[in-house]
Amino acid sequence: MGYNYWGFPKYVSVGEKKASAKKTLDKLKKTNPNISPIIIEGSKIASTWWGQAWNKNLEKYADYSNRIGRGRSYVRNGSVVDLQINPGVITSLVQGGESKPYSITIQIKEVPPEIWKNIKAECAGKLESLQELLVGKFPKALGEIFTAKGNGLFPMPDEIKFSCSCPDSAYMCKHIAATLYGIGARLDKDPSLFFKLRKLEVNELIAQTVGSKVDELLQKAQNKTSRILSDSNLAGIFGIDFNIDFSVMNAVKQNLSPAKTKKNPKKSKKL
User: Fold this and answer.
1) How many Å apart are CA 254 and CA 259, to the nearest integer?
2) Is residue 137 very low, low, confident or very high in pLDDT (cuts 50, 70, 90)?
3) Bridge partners (DSSP) listed for residue 244
4) Of 219, 239, 218, 242, nearest to 228 (Cα)?
5) What is the greatest pairwise CA distance in the chain?
6) What is the pTM of this model?
7) Strand partners, 86
8) How many angstroms separate the CA atoms of 23 and 78, rounded?
């Protein structure tokens, strides 16, 4: 990186930043076919409910609101040349002023079991399908539950730890900030990664909803003991179109944990 007469880094135009990021990305692709860059299309960093909710959650905390903005231009310029989301951890490569990209690691604590249990209870009977959940088409009240400070699905600052290989001594450098925004952009493409990151079994959420509807239907029929609904019947009755692990659903209906059902495993079936 070059410096000007006063010892500050020389100005680098947006075009130069984009060209540098592209050069790095092309080089990385030659050695890593699984490279996954963040490419922003359009004026918004995130457009879907999950992507926007992720970004808004970070911006509403005072610890982050004054710092995370440093990453907007970086993520828009394509500087996040790789971003990988795994259970509890995100890793990324962000092209900065040096020839090699900086390495970022972000660790996120899992959702406390009691909070997850409460959220599943709140969702019972209010979700129609996995597709509805992932595209964000659910009642506003559920969105407020998901994003509640301290009791929702989204992490608070004290649940997030991060590090960057750059020399910037700032609490949150622009490379980390760009990565955090990059997560929101990635959730636009694949919202299921949110549940993977937070170590949550999304099937548990859907199973409890479906289970409550089955109970309601059986109660109306006033024949709980003799009436048996097959998996295929459920699909026709509720119009649900997704894959679900019925051992999980049965566990929820019997107030058992999924782990207890593994003693007698059953094959997952498609509705």
Assistant:
1) 13
2) confident
3) 269
4) 218
5) 86
6) 0.73
7) 89
8) 11
